[in-house]
Task: inverse folding
């Protein structure tokens, strides 16, 4: 008998990492099918290799093509690792396409990181899927209460934890230099000036502590896209430092877990890498130099006990999270996906699944739903928009996307040809 199949729909490298990790946790014996949705942030081969989860099959296609995909309809589980708007468009369109089938997949969605803004906005677009994963007790309580208030089944909310929390517990080593790793974010801080200031402070810390290794953990090459746009990559900003970068400051790529294996202090503004670090017991600092602000997302960590500035890190601070706060965020759980596996088993045992129906219907929010459907290439009946160039959006838009994607690949090549030598000069790629 062939193995059951779990399909992951992803539109960026970060969301693939989350979705594929979730798939491994909730269905460890299933074959893994990857559907990479074509768009601005479709992951490159390099980004996928860095994540290190290899699917059994992989395809890249427009979102609208999913409604007629027979393999997707036959999957046992579908993980929607996409934005809330795309989850809504797919729940509506796949619900109509799969209506009347004896079998339809169990649908799973959730959040790639901490939910620090637009909770209701994102949550109600996910309503109507079979399972909405909440990464902590705190989130599960909020999500369930919100769903109950608008008559969405609160039992669809299942508490878990971020799926990539793991790795070996932290143990200081005398066989290598003390290593501070800064986890870079594409859009936090956002301005070129602030990003250069951050890099200057990291360089100053490296000069002040010549016995330490200071790593800037990068997310992408110039020209590659992630979930958020990175306008001013550190690979280029390092050439604008007021003084030459010290030898113990390096720019690095690689799997985050492998970088954490050699990290003694993780520093970030608000990256979910902080939770990965805390899970292992690595001292972790949430940077306050740009303020503790909702716009930066670091307000999420206000009760963690880990807020710190570069001045405090220069003076030797090694923050560790408050145990009660860490527990509420799902840090330190053993087998956090047991409840999700139980929910999947219960849905299977209940017999034929009801037709998928999102909270936002044409009757309840036709204008909002219609806009999101069109943005994802669907009409209001959940069918691909018909165009001379095929399905999945207007012919003009598809042509523009094709040109833009070719342009992005050209910039990506520039990254390898022109930026790579700089990276080799300053650190390990």
Result:
């Amino acid at each position: 008998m062939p193995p059951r199949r779990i399909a992951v729909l992803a539109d960026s490298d970060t969301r693939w990492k989350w979705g594929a990790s979730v798939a491994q946790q909730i269905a460890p014996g299933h074959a893994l099918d990857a559907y990479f949705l074509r768009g601005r942030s479709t992951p490159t081969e390099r980004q996928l290799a860095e994540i290190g989860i290899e699917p059994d099959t992989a395809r890249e296609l427009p979102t609208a093509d999913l409604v007629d995909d027979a393999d997707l309809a036959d999957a046992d589980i579908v993980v929607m690792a996409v934005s809330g708007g795309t989850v809504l468009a797919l729940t509506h369109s796949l619900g109509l396409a799969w209506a009347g089938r004896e079998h339809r997949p169990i649908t799973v969605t959730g959040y790639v990181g901490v939910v620090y803004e637009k909770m209701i906005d994102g949550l109600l677009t996910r309503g109507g899927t079979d399972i909405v994963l909440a990464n902590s007790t705190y989130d599960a309580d909020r999500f369930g209460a919100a769903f109950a208030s608008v008559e969405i089944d609160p039992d669809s909310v299942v508490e878990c934890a971020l799926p990539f929390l793991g790795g070996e517990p932290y143990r200081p080593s005398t066989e290598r230099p003390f290593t501070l790793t800064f986890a870079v974010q594409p859009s936090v801080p956002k301005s070129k000036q602030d990003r250069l200031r951050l890099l200057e402070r990291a360089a100053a810390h490296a000069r002040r502590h010549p016995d330490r290794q200071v790593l800037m953990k990068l997310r992408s090459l110039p020209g590659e896209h992630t979930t958020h746009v990175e306008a001013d990559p550190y690979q280029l900003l390092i050439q604008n430092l007021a003084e030459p970068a010290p030898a113990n400051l390096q720019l690095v790529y690689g799997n985050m877990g492998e970088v954490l294996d050699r990290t003694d202090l993780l520093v970030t503004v608000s990256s979910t890498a902080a939770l990965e670090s805390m899970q292992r017991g690595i001292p972790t600092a949430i940077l306050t130099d740009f303020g503790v602000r909702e716009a930066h997302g670091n307000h999420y960590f206000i009760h963690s006990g880990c807020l710190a500035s570069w001045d405090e890190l220069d003076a030797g601070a090694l923050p560790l999270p408050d145990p009660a706060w860490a527990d509420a965020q799902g840090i330190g759980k053993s087998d956090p996906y047991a409840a999700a596996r139980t929910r999947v088993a219960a849905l299977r045992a209940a017999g034929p699944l009801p037709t998928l129906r999102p909270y936002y219907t044409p009757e309840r929010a036709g204008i909002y739903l219609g806009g999101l459907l069109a943005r994802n290439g669907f009409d209001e009946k959940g069918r691909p928009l018909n165009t001379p160039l095929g399905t999945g959006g207007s012919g003009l838009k598809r042509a523009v996307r094709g040109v833009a994607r070719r342009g992005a690949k050209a910039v990506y090549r520039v990254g390898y040809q022109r930026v790579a030598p700089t990276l080799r000069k300053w650190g390990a790629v």
Observations:
- Residues 395-426 form the longest helix (32 residues).
- The CA atoms of residues 387 and 395 lie 6 Å apart.
